[in-house]
Amino acid sequence: MDKILLFNRWDLSEVKVNDPGLRRYININPVIVPKSSGKLNRPSIHKADMSVVERFINKLRVPGHRGKKHKLSSGHVTGSYINVYLAVKEGFEIIHRKTKKNPVQVLVEAIENSALLEEVMGYRLGGIIARKSVVTTPQRRLDIALRLIAQDIFSSSFRKKKKFPEIMADELIAIASGDQRNSVIQERNRIEREAEGAR
User: Fold this and answer.
1) What distances in angstroms separate CA 129 from CA 66, 70, 97, 155, one per listed residue?
2) What is the pLDDT of residues 153-165, one digit of tens each?
3) Is residue 91 part of a domain?
4) What are 53-106's pLDDT values in tens digits?
5) How far apart are CA 122 and CA 165, in angstroms?
6) Exposure of 142 by Cβ count < 10 A (0-12 exposed, 13-18 middle, 19+ buried)?
7) Which terminus of the chain is more exposed, N or C, with fewer CB under 10 A?
8) Where are the alpha helices (DSSP H) in the chain?
9) Cα–Cα nearest to 153, from 142, 163, 138, 143
């Protein structure tokens, strides 16, 4: 019997999730076309059943705002699913050509490297806002990691001569390798340093 291959190309049974906290939430079940047509959006607990590649594509379509009061917005990024789908497919080919690895494994490693463990939450204590370090839940770790990666790719694509799939491939390879100069790794380290100071 033939295997189910992502994009008729990549075997997802080879992909390993090394982070035990994320293992349950990164869905790498075999699919050919990563598209559930919104079946798994509500309630939000079912997003763990959605393929991680589909979640990555959805996040690339609208990376979300950054900064306070939506100072840096991605509101004008409302491209069609098929455009981003084809860009991700081409980007995965570039990743395979450069690293000789399964590109979904590179995506999973990038998510693991950008998933923060602690963050700072504010709460009211009398008349002031106190800040306290909290452990981040696995579902939120995955959500934040995908958002940081998508925003990094989105911001890196401006004023560049490279095509979007090439930029996406370069950023995923850099994050997966743990490059400390990458803005995603720096942002994760910054948030965790803040959390360490607020313990």
Assistant:
1) 22, 21, 50, 32
2) 988 887 788 898 9
3) yes
4) 999 998 888 777 776 666 666 666 666 888 889 999 999 999 999 999 999 999
5) 38
6) buried
7) N
8) 52-61, 81-99, 103-114, 138-156, 164-176, 183-197
9) 163
Q: Is residue 180 a contact partner of residue 186, using CB atoms and an 8 Å limit?
A: yes
Q: Residue 105's pLDDT is what?
A: 95
Beta bridge partners of 10: 6
Domain holding 49: CATH number? 1.10.455.10
Look at the block and give the residue holding tokens 């910054």.
Answer: 190
Does any domain span residue 3? no
Rounded distance, CA 197 to CA 199, Å? 6
Side-chain-side CA neighbours of residue 114 (13 Å): 32
How far is residue 22's CA from residue 61's CA, in Å, rounded to a whole number?
A: 23
**Helices 183-197, 164-176: inter-axial angle, 10-degree rounding:** 40
The answer to the question of residue 6 being in a domain is no
* Encoded tokens for 62: 């609208």
Look up residue 191 and give its two tokens: 């948030």
DSSP 162: S
Task: Please provide the size of the chain in residues.
Answer: 199
Q: How confident is the model at residue 177 (pLDDT cuts 50, 70, 90)?
A: very high
Rg over CA atoms, the chain: 17
Quote the number of domains for the chain: 1
